[in-house]
Design brief:
The protein has 7 helices and 17 strands. With about 325 residues, the chain is of the alpha+beta class. Strands 3-4-7-6-5-8-12 form a 7-stranded mixed beta sheet. A 5-stranded mixed beta sheet has the order 15-14-13-16-17, with helices on both faces.
Length: about 325
């Protein structure tokens, strides 16, 4: 996670997938920052802040953990979790933490340990499954039909720095789209998670796996091209799909507000999409009718919001969470 970012590598088109880049600067926008949509701001520890907790208290049963999936996304500066009853496709718990002062592997692990020490459910081991997605900048996409497992480190090194002595290269093959993802997982996090969950029900992923699975398998596939802007706290993820095929995916650092529009325009032009009429869907930390939305809508007339998997059930307790928010977290349990 804390490697020096190389120069951006231009994406290489391979069948329907762009072998993209993805070791980029971890910068918070100076203007027009992504909206957290958070409430219940609470300092729970000097190393983290608890910014959201929503629980379906009428349905969550501590004695039924063996029937629930625990999903966790771990980034450099945040940690999110949700609990899903996989029998009923129902979300029972969603929590969001900001990690503070995580500027080295040691301080990052300390911040994560602080969250775990304050959270009894995270320390439980008898879940049906524990699925953890790493939100880092080190991954590459390649066509599954051409993918060679023995070359996974080479695929990764084409687009990101990889330190074999402190990281391991992991692979995920997507359900649809002829896509394989190879990504770097820090050894200190893998070791910590395996120590916490020793029962063999731990599965590891990259953040982009849940995004792409959600877009390609669990969205109604429109016939026309659609550009998806996923506004994360520290990145802009941009995907273009048509039907159930991925045409483009990349991650961009955001230094100023114009970067949102400039990146989108370049990608839409490369994909032969009209900026005035092309369909664009927003996901992530942004609210309707906010100044952030109004800024984007000024340049992108055909702008709307994406939505979570329609088969997913949430009680009224989650009404404050928009359909387009926490898309990645709520989709992670569906990754194989």
């Amino acid at each position: 996670m804390w490697t020096k970012s190389p120069s951006t590598v231009v994406g290489k088109t391979t069948t329907s997938v762009v072998l993209a880049v993805l070791c980029v600067s971890d910068l918070l926008p100076k203007f027009l920052p992504p909206e957290t949509g958070s409430n219940h701001l609470e300092a729970t520890d000097v190393k983290h802040k608890h910014v959201r907790k929503i629980k379906d208290t009428s349905r969550f049963d501590i004695d039924n953990l063996q029937e629930y999936c625990l999903s966790i996304l771990i980034g450099t500066h945040d940690l999110q979790l949700c609990v899903t009853d996989t029998r009923k496709n129902r979300v029972l718990l969603l929590e969001d933490f900001i990690l503070q002062g995580a500027d080295s592997p040691e301080s990052h692990l300390a911040a994560i340990q602080g969250v775990y020490e304050s959270h009894h459910l995270l320390n439980a081991a008898f879940w049906q499954e524990i699925k953890v997605g790493f939100k880092n900048r080190q991954f590459s996409l390649a066509p599954t039909t051409l993918f060679e497992e023995s070359q996974k480190e080479l695929y990764l090194q084409m687009n990101a720095e990889f330190a074999a002595d402190t990281e391991q290269a992991l692979v995920y093959h997507h359900h649809k789209g002829d896509i394989s993802t190879v990504y770097a997982a820090p050894n200190y996090l893998v070791s910590y998670l395996k120590e916490k969950y020793p029962n063999g029900n731990l599965k590891l992923y990259h953040h982009c796996n849940s995004i792409l699975e959600g877009l390609l398998k669990y969205q109604a596939p429109p016939r026309e091209k659609v550009a998806y802007l996923f506004i994360d706290r520290f990145f802009l993820h941009l995907a273009v799909t048509k039907e159930d095929s991925l045409l483009y995916f990349n991650t961009f650092p955001i230094r100023k507000s114009d970067d949102y529009v400039n990146n989108l325009v370049r990608v839409m032009q490369a994909q032969d999409m009209n900026i005035k009429t092309g369909k664009v869907a927003l996901l992530g930390f942004i609210r309707p009718q906010s100044k952030h939305y109004e800024f984007l809508h000024k340049y992108i007339p055909n702008l709307g919001f994406g939505h979570r998997n329609k088969g997913l059930k949430l009680s009224y307790d989650f009404d404050e969470v928009g359909e387009h928010q926490y898309f990645d977290l709520l989709t992670l349990y569906l990754c194989a």
